[in-house]
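Listing S7. Sequence submitted for prediction.
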Amino acid sequence: MPKLTVKIGSLKFSNPTELASGILCNGALLRRTATEGGAGAVVTKSLTNERREGYPNPTIVGVRAGLINAIGLSNPGYAEFLRHELPLAREGKVCVMVSVAGSDVGEFLRISSAAEDSGADGVELNLSCPHVKKRGLEMGSDPELVHEVVKEVKGALKIPVHAKFGLTDRLTDAALKAEGAGADAIVAINTIKATAIDIHARKPVLSNIYGGLSGPAIHSIAVRCVYELYEILSIPLIGSGGVEDWQTAVEFLLAGARAVQIGSAVAIKELNVFNKVARGIERYLDTCGFKSVEEIVGCAHG
């Protein structure tokens, strides 16, 4: 429906829902997320230079208001994924963003360039993984490094470059640096570092001890981050964190996001969550007299 169409820079999403990275790991499932689930766009699993097995089980634990996961960025390596899985994902006929998790500037550039050559609609730089050392959150906490990574990747690619950040005390500084380096959009936020203790075994549940908390527990924090970033940035925002229904999605849109990523709800509910959220947003727009999603982006700001 035209009412639900949103533009994220040069990209057009059929509706403002996007599958978050790391939830579904192969091309056939990414295709189903679009064709059966109704997602407006999808993001692949984060890809690294070499194959990663990830952490041993247990890697996921349910907690009171969400999930904690420490998968360890398991993936077949970028070359294998781009060759065999990306073509399947693109059959879904929605924007496919390739998530990139580099350990240095060169790795980000290498994988991003390969993604463009393989037909990706854009890349999402994972500057926010909270449980893998020397990747993700550590990089996203360094505004100067963020600027260097984004500048190098953006300077080499023609497709859009999105930067995904986690919760750090330098989030606004890093986001401003990403914008200054040419990022086309900011995604906020990734999971938050957390742990769970088995009170009977009297030890941490996850093999890695620490993981990333997702789901309803982080939603209000994520909305706050988007609200703050909207006040200082001029590029589009994509909200991520605890979206499980149309109400939580609309909250992000009012805070300033132009689209929302959905992750944990896919595992907890069903693939059709994208359709349900999109239809709920549409009903909200009709009820309130708005003609498009674009009209409510940032409405919560004075």
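Caption to Listing S7: primary sequence and predicted structure tokens for the chain studied. The chain has a mean pLDDT of 94. DSSP finds eleven helices and 16 strands in the chain.
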